[in-house]
Structures
1.
Amino acid sequence: MKIAVFSSKPYDSQFLDAANTRYGYELVYIESHLNEITASLTKGFDAVCVFVNDDLGSETLEVLHSAGVRWVALRCAGFNNVDLEGAERLGIGVVRVPEYSPYAVAEHAVALMLSLNRKIHRAHNRIREGNFSLNGLLGFDLHGKTVGVIGTGKIGQVFAQIMKGFGCPTLAFDPYPNDRCKELGVKYVGLDELLGESDIISLHCPLNKDTKHVVNASAISKMRDGVMLVNTSRGGLIDSLALINGLKSGRIGSVGLDVYEEEEDLFFEDLSNTVIQDDVFARLMTFPNVLISSHQAFFTSNAMEKIANVTFANLEQLAKGMDCPNKVTIQR
Ligand code: NAI
């Protein structure tokens, strides 16, 4: 099988090559994102292996189909970047890695939360400059603070479990509450109640038409003054302009972001010698109480190994005409 691996970085080839010793696929690494233009590189390939910021809209899928590509293997869980109807119409099978390490993402959300609260990012910079003052570094005890979790699937559940260890009463909103969270003592409430009662809110739901901009001006107006907001899920869950207004007014006390709605042109790249053109993102970077990481929550060696192994196993099942449990299907 010949596979074009788009948006590939050295760390992708490191883990994919290691996993491929069991399969012997022909892998061609392409640094560019997949889109309707780069899709024309895939003539003669059986499959493309893609990541979160590749564009698998209808135009790209048409080009892939004309080139003879039969399978799309997402090396991630989310599939909001794929036109599933288009893929089905063209007979292109789409597979994903639904779960690789909920711990990686939940732990990163906690890392953002702890760093923001105790201002570790600011302290680190100060100390390197010989500034040992504590002004502006005041945090609070997490113990006893109410944490709101939006989305209690695999990652939200692990996050809730960690919060229990911190001694934080935890509220959750999810249309499908799960028993494990209830056993942990998580209290399921309506979204408005969660927004109004939480000192810290962490987003762990998928991006879809119901959740797009779930954090908008109206939601922010219902939050507690000084609330901490953490998003390790998908950028489109937050209306960035409303977020900036919330930060300027002080309603939002601090924000940790691992994702951003226009991250495609920024994240995963070294842009240190260029001028950032996205003024909204540039404004977000100016706040002392905003901590941004570049979609790295998944990035542990455990997760990368699992992603590589599951991706190839998925493709093997498709190639053999077997049922693949990780095939992405349209929910009708
Ligand atoms: P999951 O599918 O196990 O859980 C998602 C949960 O969200 C489900 O319980 C579902 O019922 C709930 N949900 C659906 N609609 C909702 C709504 N309108 N309001 C509240 N909850 C809703 O997914 P998992 O594995 O926990 O991942 C969650 C998200 O994390 C993914 O969709 C992905 O966007 C993001 N993610 C981010 C990564 C990163 O590196 N930053 C890595 C992996 C996933």
2.
Amino acid sequence: MTQTIRRRIAPLLGSYRPEGDKSLSHRALLFAALAEGQSTIRRFLVGGVTQAMLRCLRALGVPCELDAQAHILRVQGVGLHGFTPPAEPLNCGNSATTFRLLAGALAGAGTPCVLDGSAGLRRRPMDRILEPLRLMGAHVSSDTGRAPLRFAPAPLHGISYTLPIASAQVKSCLLLAGLSADAPTAILEPGPSRDHTERMLAAMGAAIRPLEAPAHGAVVLPQTNPLRPLDLELPGDISSAAFLIVAATLLPGSDFTLLRVGVNPTRTGILDALRAMGADIQLLNETTLAGEPVADLRVRAAHLSGTVIQGDLVVRMIDEFPAFMIAAAAARGETLVRDAAELRTKESDRIAGMASALRALGVDIEEYPDGFRIRGTGVIPGGAALGAGGDHRVAMSLALAGLIAEQPITVEGFDILNESFPDFPSVLGLNA
Ligand code: S3P
């Protein structure tokens, strides 16, 4: 689907409660499957990526009932070792979170199967889970270090492993496998990746604890009792909210509140980055939901100036860079991002893809292996037809650019946004 986005004169006003967090939806669904008993998950994200996890778990014999209108999911857990070997390869679609988290659960369960995904997913690096899973004793093979992976049953050993790059997907994969290992599993990482797995598994009765600062990571013990089922409502997704935070910041006169958004400190780097540029974002009604901090975010329009992003902040806003790049392009002054080579391994190479799109829109951007430099003038000229490159966050970021650019922007493959944020067009009035 191709969408043309024109400059929006009207401010963004009112409020919106974002759909359930993608990372938490994946985890709640998978962990509920590994528990014993029935779980109920409210405000479950109904998007392409979570449908992939749902499809795989059903193929593994897990009874799941989704009321897509009400966003309520019921899962009948089969336990850590209760998967039925599937007849066909499991198809994770475009979802690396489905692939990597499920890989840890499958290794732990000892389920013989093949784990596969879309052509896009087959290009993404999986050696980062293959190597440590093999160190744990898993029988998992791949011809290329990428999908598809083949699993055969094998007993797992506890290991201590340091991730070369901070990654919540890899950490979660290994912690899940560690539940079925013969000794404790310690995962150390160089930066603070999201800790949703640790929080949720602990709430389900797992013996799991975060490492103490200045170390990052977690330790999990072999699980001797069944995991307890879940009954929870998920916080709104800050990664989806980020698009609306940028829109409200850039559209003059805006005053917009995002309700009950997850503000786990491992995810709020985008708020720190935008505030450092001059954004006006207030946290209101702070409370806890599903063991996670949540707040209402009130965003008022502001003029932005350039900033520098590097180090631990990068991992705390890793999914928000495409939206952030639009903010940087609309800011005045120079924005420099380093230490962000991981952006090249996401749904697309987000440095290359966004840099070439922004250049086509008349923005001054220079690319580095691990980042970029944008020289903002306060104006995005626009006036180009661009492809989303099969990346939901690129599609939505280009739409943001269209809302403020001088000339309309056409985005091909726009509907890929349904992977994570089906409400996006209607909240911004793009269907009108
Ligand atoms: C995720 C972790 C991040 C993030 C992804 C979701 C998760 O990936 O980019 O969208 O739910 O654990 P990495 O662990 O590869 O950094």
